[in-house]
Give the backbone structure.
Amino acid sequence: MQNYIPPFQKIIDELNKLPGIGPKSAEKLASYILKMNEEDFGEFINSLEDGRKKIRKCKICFNLSEEEICDICKDESRDKYTICVVEEPKDLIAIEKTGVYNGLYHVLHGILRPSDDIESKNLKIDKLIDRIKSSNIKELILATNLTYEGELTAMFILRELGDIKLKITRIASGLPVGSDIEYADQLTLKKAFEGREEMDKEVLIKG
């Protein structure tokens, strides 16, 4: 059996480690990279290195930023009394594109997955609770994906809020169960956001 030469196989193996990239996709990407001319390849590598150096997480909401505080958190025109919780920066971007929301965000950079031993502290849920307590937040929108893990994460946050008094809503209407926010079209996402439903914390926790 003919195998790829080690340097090429190494590229495939590294690409295969990326989420959503299987062996076949890794092979195609590796082949594409090798076919790039020197100028394009140089720009590709430079963009990766530059991104690694410049991109950081906002110290308030953990969105991707070039500075300590992201543009959304610095924007005085935003509603400072509402926080929308999302799994990833791409979900934040999807919501922003609808133009239906003008509050703040809290980006988890993941969700609770018991099988992967992901802990709540890695998702900065404790930081979220601190923000709510210290900033007089009036509404918390739980916009994690409508998947098992997304619902599990939303329920965990709900329990962690304890007796904190505020309005808690969950996007649901318009988005089918099991769907990811990033793949929803803007109209569907806009309707889901506008039609979000208030959650009864006491009933859910006791249940």
Observations:
- The longest helix spans residues 38-54.
- The domain at 70-206 is CATH 3.40.1360.10 (Dna Topoisomerase Vi A Subunit; Chain: A, domain 2).
- The chain has two domains: 6-54, 70-206.
- Residues 48 and 144 are 28 Å apart (CA to CA).
